[in-house]
């Protein structure tokens, strides 16, 4: 794939069309996955912060896979949380996915997210292998 080729992945979020964004974009070997919230296809949100974190990573990693990547390709993650007291449990879920990969990572406490049911939203960047 040439560096000029741009690919997009969708997760079916209703915001993708109205706001004008993609769940993930691949340009050359780089994949950027947009802020990903813990929403199920039916619009439901589990109130448990650990379940929310798992759902976020599942959505993001499916988008990454759609563009040819794997968790091993992830080089940076960002987690936005609304309650510092939930940082440890949300961070432990990050460890379920990345304990052996150990990407650069940031966790930020924010005043709020788009939907008040969301306890966490995540992003990731990946660099795919050459070839």
Automatic annotation (TrEMBL):
One Pfam family, short name: Ribonuc_L-PSP
Top-level division of the source organism's lineage: Bacteria
Protein name: RidA family protein
CDD domains listed in its UniProt record: YjgF_YER057c_UK114_like_6
The organism of origin for this protein: Nocardioides fonticola
InterPro entries tied to this protein: RutC-like_sf, YjgF/YER057c/UK114
Gene3D superfamilies: RutC-like (3.30.1330.40)
